[in-house]
Amino acid sequence: QVQLVESGGGLVQPGGSLRLSCAASGFTFSGHYMSWVRQAPGKGPEWVATISLSGTSTLYADSVKGRFTISRDNAKNTLYLQMNSLKPEDTALYFCARGPPSIATVPSRGSWGQGTQVTVSS
């Protein structure tokens, strides 16, 4: 059974950093594009970043470009999101998801986990 378990969220001050992790199991991790998606209260899912199978190609939403870095370790079946220069508007529940943006933003298709909360506040 496909399982994605996010971790690493927390409370951080504006300008701070967090590193999110996603442990994947139940499927061939290296055979899927992977993405990060976030959702703030009262808002729909917002695609954040996507990474290719080998991890050599990445794509980012304009809102996070230059601040966030998506990476993966296929040997460990783990996806990461390094978040720097955090802003209050980054506050959201962050989900790991399978697939490119069109798939990843749909919870059932992206196989979202439980999510990890990121709160950026002074």
Give an overview in words.
- With 122 residues, the protein is mainly beta.
- Helices cover 7% and strands 45% of the residues.
- It is built from 2 helices and 10 strands.
- The strands form 2 sheets. The chain has a 6-stranded mixed β-sheet.
- A hairpin with a 6-residue loop joins strand 4 and strand 5.
- It is globular and about 40 Å long.
- The mean pLDDT is 97.
- How do the SSEs run, as a string of H and E? EEEEEEEEEHHE
Report the radius of gyration as a whole number of Å: 13 Å
Mean pLDDT: 97
**Which structural class do the helices and strands define?**
mainly beta
What is the beta-strand fraction?
over 45%
Task: Report how far the terminal alpha carbons are from each other.
Answer: 40 Å
Supply the key terms.
single chain; 122 residues; mainly beta; six-stranded mixed β-sheet; four-stranded antiparallel β-sheet; globular
How would you briefly describe this protein structure?
By secondary structure, this protein is mainly beta. It contains 2 helices and 10 strands.
Chain-wise SSE layout:
Blueprint: E1 3-7, E2 10-12, E3 18-25, E4 34-39, E5 46-51, E6 58-60, E7 68-73, E8 78-83, E9 92-98, H1 101-104, H2 107-110, E10 116-120
Parallel strand pairs: 2-10
Antiparallel strand pairs: 1-3, 3-8, 4-5, 4-9, 5-6, 7-8, 9-10
